[in-house]
Write a structure and sequence with these properties.
Blueprint lengths: L20 H8 L8 E2 L11 H11 L11 H15 L8 E4 L2 H12 L5 E4 L6 H8 L3 E4 L3 E3 L2 E3 L2 H8 L4 E7 L11 H13 L3 E5 L20 H4 L3 E4 L2 H4 L7 E4 L3 H13 L7 H10 L2 H28 L4 E2 L7 E5 L7 H11 L2 E2 L1 E2 L10 E5 L4 H15 L2
Parallel strand pairs: 1-13, 3-4, 3-7, 7-8, 8-9
Antiparallel strand pairs: 2-10, 5-6, 9-10, 11-12, 12-15, 14-15
Helix pairs in contact: 2-11, 3-11, 4-5, 4-10, 6-7, 12-14, 13-14
Length: 396
């Protein structure tokens, strides 16, 4: 079956916050035009995979929605997916159901660090990383990305120094990286893991975009690279980004070390984050199937063509602007520093005048200045209209 990713779904008829100006205004603390094109929230605008829709319809017809728990089919689906996609044989007892990957990061920070400890993140990075660390009264320690040979890269020399500080207890890794779209190589991930093992720094790896990888690149779950890593680190993932089911609150932690897993689950329970979502369980099982895999393959191919369009559009129509091509994720990281406008003027023109809702670069921390994150997980016509609007206000 060939799936239609050009078809537009009217999300204004739902309570999806991405498409409601009131929700956007609350998020950005500004009044937002009704005729906006929302390219901000990291979900896609494609109709959900039919295999998931059908599974949810079957579950609705059972007419009762009490408390649920993952059963054998859930664990088999997670194992199937990890083995099929990444060659990683994940045991059922390693798996814990979570409401979200962000919740998993919060649980890990609270469990394995203490107030005042340093948590290393690699900015510019998904802004909840820093927010969680600050809200938990830990210290944000930035191991900022650098650009080498036209690609974003980790500063491993600095990471070694930061990891050697006894007060820095954890690294929250974004793999693939949001917002830059870097897909880390096996060699890079091994280097990071060895540094953290050497200095007893726990890695919590957010791999929620790990299924969205473009040609020429490969995703490696960091825990899968060495049995020693399985005993020291935490893997977090979900079908939410790939299949656009984030609202069903079905995410996963994979923690092979029983002592680490037991401590993690103890905090999860104390935070009342252990209740499972009836439909989230069904969505995971349906997504992590051969039918889900084929749908995801076609979706990623479509989004790669959107990346091609975006890259070409910026080169041909936006002098002074640039974009390092993403290797994965459905996110474009636009560098507008060559326009000399400054962050406030960029925000004013793009978000308030053009009504294209992108996430301002500074929200991702140092290195995000005069950048915008734009979501390419949408029908091509929507992406084209958004870029035409952006061009018109930046070069008026």
């Amino acid at each position: 079956m060939k799936y239609d990713f050009d078809r537009k779904v009217d999300r204004k008829q739902t309570n999806d916050m991405k498409w409601h100006s009131e929700a956007v205004a609350s998020y950005l603390h500004r009044e937002i035009p009704e005729e906006m094109i929302p390219m901000w929230l990291a979900d896609t605008d494609f109709a959900c995979a039919p295999v998931i829709v059908e599974a949810l319809e079957r579950r609705v017809k059972k007419e009762i929605f009490g408390y649920c728990a993952p059963m054998k089919s859930f664990y088999q689906a997670v194992n199937y997916w990890q083995k099929m996609r990444f060659g990683w044989d994940v045991k059922a007892e390693w798996i814990t159901y979570l409401p979200s990957v962000v919740a998993g990061i919060n649980i890990a920070v609270r469990t394995f660090t203490e107030e005042g400890d340093g948590v290393i993140i690699q900015q510019p990075v998904y802004d909840p990383f820093a927010t969680i660390v600050k809200n938990d009264n830990r210290k944000v320690v930035n191991n900022g990305l650098v650009i080498r040979d036209g690609r974003f890269a980790m500063n491993l020399e600095e990471l070694e120094m930061l990891a050697a500080c006894p007060e820095n207890k954890m690294l929250v890794l974004c793999s693939p990286h949001n917002p830059t779209g870097r897909v880390w190589t096996k060699e890079e991930l091994t280097a990071v893991a060895e540094i953290c093992l050497k200095h007893n720094v726990m890695i919590v790896s957010d791999e929620i975009h790990g299924d969205i990888i473009y040609e020429g690149h490969r995703q490696y779950p960091i825990l899968s690279l060495d049995e020693r890593y399985e005993q020291n680190f935490i893997h977090l993932t979900a079908p939410g980004k790939t299949f656009n089911v984030a609202g069903l609150k079905g995410s996963i932690s994979i923690i092979p070390n029983k002592d680490i897993r037991d401590a993690f689950v103890k905090t999860q329970t104390a935070m009342s984050l252990d209740v499972k979502n009836t439909f989230g369980i069904e969505a995971v099982i349906a997504a992590y199937s051969p039918e889900g895999a084929e749908w995801a393959r076609q979706e990623v191919a479509y989004m790669q063509s959107n990346v091609d369009f975006l890259e070409e559009f910026v080169k041909e129509n936006m002098p002074g602007a640039s974009m390092i091509r993403p290797e994965g994720t459905f996110l474009g990281w636009l560098d507008l520093s060559g326009l000399g406008l400054g962050d406030e003027e960029i925000f004013k023109r793009v978000v308030l005048e053009a009504a294209v809702i992108c996430v301002p670069g500074p929200w991702f921390g140092p290195g995000g200045e005069e950048h915008l994150r734009i979501n390419v997980g949408c029908p091509r016509s929507m992406l084209k209209e958004a870029m035409e609007r952006i061009r018109s206000v930046l070069y008026r």
